[in-house]
């Protein structure tokens, strides 16, 4: 299927030409709707890969993950100059540290806005996040001079919910939409910078083009993000078929539509009750159950834990998850990468061997 | 709780263990080991209180060894709010302290290896790895650790602890209380403090259920006061480092800080620190410094390198350098003024939201600068701790600012607080030598 996804630069220029503001947003969870209600367009920064890491290395130790290193390097090389503000959710110790280093020590031109995400799924966690969003509202009001009403907020929320529903539908029908692994993730990850309405149009078009399911060895991809993206082409070439994922940038952000009439509560609940994620404190048992059901529903035979080196939130869970999956007859492997490097040959060999093992 | 277990506890701890440890202390006090294992030609003889420290720590682990079945046991993160659990009669174990002890006894490689063999990456915090290794294998230099009935993880030192305690919760199948403390970039918001207070409130029924008793608020207030008293004394002890020569070095502080971490809220901890303070004051009067020929004074930032305490103490003392203050040991005292027994939960919420590790890099830089001025220091050693990202991020800029903006000599040393495999002996030695030479010029 032919699919044209507008490139990030073009989208940002378009936003700017129409008087919108751009927020560079670091991983993982935040409310797109809250930004959009102020005509601030979120453009996410996951790394990006292949930048001059010596720039970040002047401030960060080598044992900090490449997402944080690259994010800072990208900022230092001017890659975020176009952004009017930088929003950094409190995802892990490393992003917390980066936020603090930026605010206190590096002090770039853009406003740095932290967002603390609660680590539980209790009522007090929802209440806290509601208050966090309210205080963000005040900050955005101060920045833009705008005061969106509850109705405006709900309109923005529903637009995002629609887009997320279509994203979820794409996930459910991923084998019928005729996309290779790499094309599927190019489309899904365009949600990282496309305004919801544009993404929805793309998703709808893709969903209309139903074809025969693609053949391949069914697997789940878990971890933070599929970077460098060559890994997806490689899996395609090796006849691997990613039938579901538990990736922080993708499947862990399939937010269900909210129900509350209060916009702040609705935004908070969507995040607090999102699919299990270690960075939001879900238990290992919840993650295991989620992965096992995902495998049952998708027919996956194995899981590739595709991890960013030094990512503690991911590393702690792996032994328990792998043991639990093994009990269910599901094989798994761990691949660790630095997103700034090209894929080492060894990764191809290991993934190839894993797929072969599943196939036999 | 079982009668047999209680009998075992009383026999082993009260009848045999405690008197034996007391006797051991008396012996050590009467006949101090001469010569000390540490070089006394350049360092003053160890503080007399050392025998009491040893007794307290040994007794703490001895009590733990026989606690299961006799009292409820909680495992708690080092910065965690412990007062409610103390008031409910829990025996409280701090796995990080146990990790530090494993570091000092050079047992980390073996115990952490057990976790690594089970698939835990060497890129996770070495305290966590050591604890998980001990959990999986039962290995520990203290005989035996009690199994927890309850876990409490407080994110005021790092998010790592939550990931780690989720592993423990799955393994031990016991409730995990989370006290999530939003990071303080400049000042904690009202809703953040309210959030912490609410979690403390909600932790009470869970803890009560595990303990099988109701919280006595009068007892809680007493414990908060005792915690505050101990923390205030600790702060005074650290403050004595302002004297020239300093009567206590950070290497002594690292050793004597165990009670303030794992025995807060106890009368004997207050008495212990009062005795330590008295000893320091006597030494000040006699002009005794921790380093015999103190010529230069330094600040230590971040966790200690537990398996090389002696090396650092002796190498620096050889050059007449005393490391007299540390942001790390200071953290256990600086929040004392925030505790208020009349507002137990409210003041606990504030106290436990504001540790240095839950505050921004500027706060840490300002603390270093303040300490350099107040303690009249000549430089700073920043230990870049591979395991502890939250403490270490920012140190490169902090070092640069100390040097360039404040004219304070500063050295960044790469190591790991617990895992000697991440410690490059020669590299550290040569960087330290250049730094010492530079200080002399
Ligand atoms: S990869 Fe892991 S450690 Fe790095 S920013 Fe993401 S969650 Fe944090
Ligand atoms: S990461 Fe740092 S603060 Fe957290 S447990 Fe490890 S040493 Fe302690």
Give the secondary structure arrangement, pairings included:
The complex is a heterodimer of chains A (360) and B (441).
Chain A: H1 8-17, E1 21-25, H2 32-36, E2 40-44, H3 54-57, H4 66-76, E3 85-89, H5 93-106, E4 111-115, H6 123-144, H7 150-172, H8 181-189, H9 196-208, E5 217-223, H10 230-237, E6 240-247, H11 263-272, H12 284-298, E7 302-308, H13 312-315, H14 318-327, E8 331-337, H15 345-359
Parallel strand pairs in A: 1-2, 1-3, 3-4, 5-6, 5-7, 7-8
Chain B: H1 3-30, H2 50-65, E1 73-76, H3 83-87, E2 91-93, H4 95-104, H5 108-117, H6 126-137, E3 150-154, H7 160-172, E4 176-179, H8 190-211, H9 217-239, H10 250-256, H11 258-262, H12 267-286, E5 296-301, H13 309-318, E6 321-326, H14 327-330, H15 344-351, H16 361-374, E7 379-385, H17 389-392, H18 395-404, E8 410-415, H19 425-440
Parallel strand pairs in B: 1-2, 1-3, 3-4, 5-6, 5-7, 7-8
Helix pairs in contact in B: 1-2, 4-6, 5-6, 8-15, 9-12, 16-18
Structure in words:
The complex is a heterodimer of chains A (360) and B (441). With 360 residues, chain A is of the alpha/beta class. Chain A has two domains: 8-150, Rossmann fold, CATH 3.40.50.11890; 213-359, Rossmann fold (3-Layer(aba) Sandwich), CATH 3.40.50.11900. Helices cover 48% and strands 14% of the residues of chain A. Chain A contains 15 helices and eight strands. Chain A has helices spanning 8-17, 32-36, 54-57, 66-76, 93-106, 123-144, 150-172, 181-189, 196-208, 230-237, 263-272, 284-298, 312-315, 318-327, 345-359; strands at residues 21-25, 40-44, 85-89, 111-115, 217-223, 240-247, 302-308, 331-337. In chain A, the strands form two sheets. Chain A has a four-stranded parallel beta sheet with strand order 2-1-3-4. In chain A, strands 6-5-7-8 form a four-stranded parallel beta sheet, with helices on both faces. By secondary structure, chain B is α/β, with parallel strands linked by helices. Chain B has one domain (3-440). Chain B has helices spanning 3-30, 50-65, 83-87, 95-104, 108-117, 126-137, 160-172, 190-211, 217-239, 250-256, 258-262, 267-286, 309-318, 327-330, 344-351, 361-374, 389-392, 395-404, 425-440; strands spanning 73-76, 91-93, 150-154, 176-179, 296-301, 321-326, 379-385, 410-415. In chain B, strands 2-1-3-4 form a four-stranded parallel beta sheet, sandwiched between helices. In chain B, strands 6-5-7-8 form a four-stranded parallel beta sheet, sandwiched between helices. In chain B, β3 (150-154), α7 and β4 (176-179) form a beta-alpha-beta unit. In chain B, α1 (3-30) packs antiparallel against α2 (50-65), α5 (108-117) packs across α6 and α16 (361-374) packs across α18 (395-404). Classes of the chains: A alpha/beta (360), B alpha/beta (441). At the A-B interface, α5, α6, α13 and α14 of A face α7, α8, α16, α17 and α18 of B. One iron/sulfur cluster is lined by residues 27, 65, 67-68, 91-92, 94-95, 224, 279, 308, 311, 313 of chain A.
